[in-house]
Amino acid sequence: NEMATYLQQEKIKGWFFVLPLVAILFGLIAYPLISAFFFTLQQKRIGLPARWVGFENYKKILFEDPYFWKVLYNSTIYTVSSVSGKLVIGMIMALALNRKFKGRDFIRGCLLFPWILPAVVSVLIWRWMLDDMNGVINAVLMGIGLINEPVSWLGNVRFAMPSAIMVNIWQGFPFFGITLLAAMQGIPNELFEAAAVDGASWWQQFLNITLPGIKYVVLIDVILSTIWTYNAFPLVWVLTQGGPVYSTHIFGTYTYEIAMMGMNLGKGVTISMTMTPIFAVVIIFFTRYMMREVR
Fold this sequence. Notes:
Layout: H1 2-40, E1 42-43, E2 51-52, H2 56-64, H3 68-97, H4 104-111, H5 113-116, H6 119-129, H7 136-143, H8 157-184, H9 189-197, H10 202-230, H11 234-239, H12 251-261, H13 265-273, H14 275-294
Antiparallel strand pairs: 1-2
Helix pairs in contact: 1-13, 3-8, 3-10, 8-10, 10-14, 12-13
């Protein structure tokens, strides 16, 4: 009885310690999310009183909006391609910097430049480089004979999305590289030495030692990068503003166009809310995978 009483008291104490954190999380996450949901049930335009319309905004977006599914497709392609590219290049960067060679620290500092440069500044630089009339990329490609005339990288439906993906990969791969490098440096060298003695090749060491040792960092990086990329706004907006012909519109830019430029806050918030189940599925999938591996 005394032990049961003691455990009950400890449980109550535990709840008291947790309650402040729960209150903070509710204030920062749950309350804004609930408020946003109720906002989607209203027709609200800037300067006009709100009017209750129920699920009319959802109906218009899902079944009547001619661009919503295009935006969903663009967002998915943009996110999957960008995150995959950042993971591959970041992995190559980490593997290269994990070896000792002269000038490694200098090269590591240079490779961090895309990550530390302000996002808008880097996008403006790329916008100038990709310009079809005065851009350095067209000048170089024409100079070496790969193209015969300037290419409209940002004004052509075929090239606009790949260009945006390329810029996003350039901005984000250092984050993957540095975090994966830190994880690799935490793997004991004895494992690689023993594998080398047993005759394991570099590829076998990577698959059986390196990759299992950094897989949780990879998962966390992928989750964070997926959320950041899916929510991206400045890069695409500064680069193309969603054009041409909605070919690069993603959730962030489309929401801004509807809510701020179109002054339709109700519909804009509704578009944002449609991202919630997508994020929930991604987070639940990766979290369950990690928990299963831990068990």
